[in-house]
Task: structure prediction
Amino acid sequence: MTGRLADLFRLAWGLLYWNTRKSWFRYRRGRSPCPCQAPSDSGRAYETACDACVHWHNPAGFRRVCPLLVQTKKGLRCSANTAEVRPFWGRAWGYYGGTLLSVYLAGALFFFIFLRAVGYPVNIGHLVWPGSWHRVREVRGWYFMQRSEKAFAVGHPAEGMLYLSNAYEFDPTNYEVATRLAQKLQISQPLRSDEIYRRLMSDHSDQRRITAQTWFRALLARGDFGNVAELARGQLADDPGSASVWMRTLLFVTRQSHNDAPLRQILAPNAPAGVGIWRQLVQAELLLRAGRKADYRNALHQSWSDGPAYGLYYQIGALIEQDDALAAADLLQSYGGRLDTTASTQLLLEAYVTLDATRARDQLVGALLSPPLSPPVINLLTAHLIRHPDQSILDRLFEKFARDRAPATDSSLESLLALDCAAGVARDWNKMHFVADLLRANGNALTLGAAESFFRGDTTQTRIAALLPALPLPLEVNYALLERYPGPRRALRAPKP
Result:
C-alpha cells in the first residue's frame, strides 16, 4: 500500500520532471546525454533499459509517464532509439486535467449534498458550471426569504428580520428581497431603509417607477417631507404616467412644510420639458401662498380644460376651499368624464360639506352604501370622515360593514385600519375595539393599542407620523390623517439641483 502511494506521488512529479528533461534533450538535439535511458546500454530500441523507472515500486507503472517503455523477453526496455526519445506533454496534461476535474466534480458533489441537506433548493448544475455559480447565491437568498416569511407568519418578527437580513446579504441584487427588507426597516432603521431604496432606484431601472411609489408611501407615512419632495420632483418628469400622483404629493408636502422652493423650480427656465403642463396649477398655488387671494380666485375661474386631469381636480377642490362650491359643482359637471368616479365623488362630498347640504350628502353616502361594500368605498368614506367627522355617517358605514360581513384578509387590511382610524377621530372606542377584535380573530398580529392611545390623547406623542409607518393605510387616508394631525413640522430640505 505504501509503495503504491509512493508511485502515485512519483507519477504526479514525474509527469512534469521527465517531460521537462526530455524536452530539453530534444532541444539540445543530442548534445546532452539522454535523461532516461541507461548510459551503459547501446541506445537502440528494445535493447536499452530505462533508468527513470528503476526507483518505482512497480517499474511498469512508469508507462503512464512514458509509453515508450515496453515489456520484452529481457524485461522492461525503451522502444525508441536514443535520438527518438521524446516528451509526452499531452499525456501529462491529460492526467493533470483529469485529476483536477475529478477533484472539482467531487467537491461540487460534496457541496451539493451539503447544501441540499441544509435545505437550499440547488441543483447540481448550479455548482458544476461556473457560469451558474451566481445561482447558488440567489438560491440561498430565496431560502432565507422563505424562512423569513414563515417566521413572520407565526409571530416571530425578530427571527424573521434576521432571516430577511441574511437573504439580502446573500443576494443584494434580488429586487423582492431588498424591497421587503426596506419596508420592514422603515420603522426601526429608516436611514438604512432609505439607503436600500436608493440602491433599488439605481440598480433596477426597469422597476424604478414601482420602487419610487413604494418608497414614497414609506416616506410619507414617516412624515419625511424633505425626501418626499425630492422624490416627487424627480418623478414628476421621469414618470409621466403617474404625474398626477406626484404633483398631488408635491403640493401636499410643500404645504405641510411651508416651503415653496420645489414648486418654483417647476417654473424655472431650466425645468424639464415634461413638467410644463403644471405651470398653470403651480402659478395659482403660489398666488395663494403669497396671500394674493383675489388673483388666486381669478386664476381659478380661468379655463383649465386643456390641462391634465389632476389640474381639473385641483381647480374644483380649490374653489370649494374658497367657499365657491356652486362654481365648483358647475365645473365638475362640465368636465364630465375627465375625472374618475372616485375623484368626482370625493369632490361632491367636500362641496356638500361646504354648502351645509346635509340631505344631499346623506343621499350620496346612501348611494355609496347601497351596493355590497368594497375597499374603495371604505377608503373614500373614511378619508372624508377623518376630514369631516360625522357620527351618523360613521354609524351607517359600520352597520353596512357588519351586515356585509366582509372577511379580514390581507387585501382588506388597509380598509379595516382606515375604519379604525375614522372611529378614532370620532372618539368612538367601541368601534375601534370592534375592528381590533376582528383583526385578532383572523390571526393578524397587528396591535392598535398605540393608535387608540394617540386618539384618546393618552400619549405624549404629537405626531401621527410616528404611528403611520406601522399602519398600512390607503394613501388618501394617510393624507387626511397628516392634515388633521400635523404635529411638530420638520423643515423641508433644499432639493438637489
DSSP finds 23 helices and two strands in the chain. The CA atoms of residues 6 and 266 lie 82 Å apart. The chain has four domains: 2-87, 92-170, 260-356, 358-497. Residues 358-497 form one domain.
